[in-house]
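In the design runs reported in the main text, the only information available to the sequence generator was the tokenized backbone. The following block is the verbatim input for one such run; it is reproduced so that readers can re-run the procedure and compare outputs position by position.
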């Protein structure tokens, strides 16, 4: 078993034991029933009391063979509306950017990544915009931004 696979198996076990409330994260199930430990399907709940509340946002984590030395790539669906999410859906967040630019450390856990992304939803980093339309709207038309976020939340209702 590779170091990446061993670490991800450990993360999976820790997640099952103690996951943050409302979050979902599991390795991808392949058509033949096998598990792809390096690709995770996750869902991040919108924080209560924010415009993101009521949404359960799909996020895919892709882990390289070099994990945990390198961070996973984190992707919302393409076109996701947020100042720190590229048009492709890739999340721009310091804890999932490799050194020296980002602040990734091999000790960062799956739970910390997902909670960090949940926090980013309502508190975007305007110093590092990834998507200009969402950034401009957030900076200059906050009421419209909030409406668009609520509309997006309705597109991602909680799973049954």
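Verbatim output:
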């Amino acid at each position: 078993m590779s170091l990446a696979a061993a670490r991800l198996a450990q993360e999976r076990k820790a997640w099952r034991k103690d996951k943050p409330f409302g979050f979902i994260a599991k390795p991808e199930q392949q058509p033949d029933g096998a598990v792809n430990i390096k690709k995770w399907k996750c869902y991040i709940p919108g924080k209560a009391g924010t415009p993101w509340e009521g949404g359960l946002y799909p996020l895919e984590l892709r882990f390289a063979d070099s994990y945990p030395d390198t961070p996973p790539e984190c992707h919302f669906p393409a076109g996701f509306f947020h100042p720190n999410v590229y048009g492709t859906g890739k999340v721009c967040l310091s804890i999932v950017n490799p050194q020296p630019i980002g602040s990734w450390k091999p000790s960062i856990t799956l739970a910390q990544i997902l909670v960090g992304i949940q926090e980013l939803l309502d508190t975007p980093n305007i110093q590092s915009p990834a998507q200009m339309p969402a950034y401009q709207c957030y900076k200059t038309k906050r009421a419209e931004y909030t409406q668009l976020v609520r509309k997006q939340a309705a597109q991602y209702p909680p799973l049954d």
